[in-house]
Amino acid sequence: MEKRNFVRQVNNAIFSLCLPTPFSHPPKLVAASKDVIERHLDLKYEHAIQSRHFVDFVAGHIVQNGSIPISHRYGGHQFGYWAGQLGDGRAAMLGEYINSQGIRWELQLKGSGKTPYSRNGDGRAVLRSSIREYLVSEAMHHLGIATTRAASIVMSDEAVWRDQFYDGRPGIEKAAVVLRLAPSWFRFGSIEILHYNQEFQLLHRLVDVIINLHYPHLRNDKQKYTKFYTEVVNATAYLIAQWQSVGFTHGVCNTDNFSILSLTIDYGPFGFLDEYNDNFIPNTSDDEGRYRFRLQPDVAHFNLNKLRIALSSLINELDGQNILSNYKKIYRRFYLQLMRRKLGLKGHHRNDAKLIAQLLKMMKNQNADFTMTFRELSEINAQNINNNGQNLQKDKQFWSLPKVMNDKEWPVWVQSYITRLDIKNLTLYNDRDRQIQMQEANPRYVLRNYMAQVAIDKANNGDFSEVINIQDALLNPFSKQEKAEILGYASPPPYWSSKLR
Fold first, then answer.
1. Residue partners of 364: CB distance under 8 A and separation at least 6
2. Where does residue 234 rank: exposed (0-12), middle (13-18), buried (19+ CB within 10 A)?
3. pLDDT tens digits, residue range 312-331?
4. Closest C-alpha among 251, 358, 350, 329 to residue 296
5. Where are the beta strands (DSSP E) in 19-121?
6. pTM for this entry
7. Count of beta carbons in the 10 Å neighbourhood of residue 272
8. Which of 137, 150, 304 is nearest to 235 (CA)?
């Protein structure tokens, strides 16, 4: 096995040995997740964050006894085209940890230096992107969406050059490392690279390992490969439906960024919708808008088809096509289930899709906020909804729904909504069940771009308080919190937020 760490094309291997590269300046702890550290890593939070050993470990300055750091080789379709070998260009997996609950986690450092897969990169991550990844990993988890986790973020005064906007004007930023956890870091591209390089024996071994570890109920099934693909299709459809239901746009939906366990992974230029715009594109390098918000379900279908092709040595072509042909129907079912919950609807009705689409259309026409329109709809009673929220205009905490109520289509829509709720008598109707259901499905707080930017700006000046404030608020995104309200996390985004790139 090659033990030297140098950039190269790798063949007939899934991992390469790769030691983390220590910072040239001492690391400083920016933030740490108490939930991850205590519940998943079995450590005492207060002791850990005050420990120099812990900080050095999560920075990659210390390698534990028995740990063999490795970087993963994978490929991927990027913006629709096969890109060949990609791999962990700035990440090193430290090993596996099975915690006191018997749950297996793979620990990975992102930003820990060059690897065989760094290509022309320096192997570092910067504080700006690391804060965003750290916060959104935990935010997505507490929204109930499958995701990798982030245990900690450390920074250093080591200078890193980055062309943030791809405009030929690089600048100096501070280096950072995030300790990330996942049950597995395998992605569609892990299998694709072996297929396109015709390393079929290794491909079969890898898929068997994935099934044995993560789909053990299929281990002895004669149709295990076909059923494995079926489960990935179903779980991916649900994940994308969840993204759409909270207004999350990943930004870089390449096949190398799609998890084989259907987790949300590799957060880059992501964004949550502010004003509802189904053409929202958070990635400044996505010139054609391939990964815009409304196209994410279609891109997932494209990626699943590429996975089907990569599995073609294990799965009959017709079987694979038949499985994939169900994707759009499965996605649609999951999406409608989630959106019905957001509107407090029970059961299902053939006009539900139309009711949902009409509300989204009004939101788009009126530049209404995606998150807060649904949340505010959950915070007023049906009588107030029916009378066009006459008392809302004077209440500053309601700032998005009143915009929708000004749409010319609102009176027709609200009557359809009241009818769908099966309200016979508004005066006697107990609306509390609807409100509770909706508030459990509609967050009051999401990680808006401007919030992350404020935290980044302060952190670059040595003040990590806003990272902590945002992290604390996003632990309970469905509950109204006094501190979060004072900090304005449920208020209209500032005027300058729309200029952020």
1. 276, 277, 278
2. middle
3. 999 999 999 999 999 999 99
4. 251
5. 28-32, 70-72, 75-78, 81-85, 91-98, 104-110
6. 0.97
7. 24
8. 304
Interatomic CA distance for residues 480 and 435, integer angstroms: 14
Q: Please tell me the distance from the alpha carbon of residue 15 to that of residue 29, in angstroms, as a whole number.
A: 29
Q: Is a pLDDT exceeding 70 seen at residue 190?
A: yes
Q: If you search the block for the tokens 């000046």, which residue do you land on?
A: 461
The alpha carbon of residue 110 and the mean position of all alpha carbons in its chain are separated, in whole angstroms, by 16
Other CB atoms within 10 A of residue 304 CB: 22
DSSP state letters, 91-102: EEEEEEEE-TTS
- The two three-digit tokens of residue 56, written as one number: 């050095």
Other C-beta atoms lying within 10 Å of the C-beta of residue 298 = 14
CA distance 212 to 379: 46
Rounded Cα distance, 83 and 75, in Å: 7
Task: Show the DSSP H helices in 60-199 as ranges.
Answer: 127-142, 188-196
Active-site amino acid positions: 256
- Report the C-alpha gap between 229 and 396 in whole angstroms: 49
Contact 247, 294 (CB under 8 A): no
Query: Would residue 66 be called left, alpha or beta, if left means φ above 0 and alpha means ψ between -120 and 50 degrees?
Result: left
Tens of pLDDT, residues 457-490: 999 999 999 999 999 999 999 999 999 999 999 9
CA pair distance 22, 7, nearest whole angstrom: 18
Q: Are 343 and 355 in contact (CB under 8 A)?
A: yes
Q: What is the 3-state secondary structure (H, E, C) of 411-478?
A: HHHHHHHHHHCCCCCCCCCCCHHHHHHHHHHCCCCCCCHHHHHHHHHHHHCCCCHHHHHHHHHHCCCC
Question: What residues form DSSP beta bridges with 112?
Answer: 124
Phi-psi domain of 84 (left: phi exceeds 0; alpha: psi -120 through 50; beta: other):
left
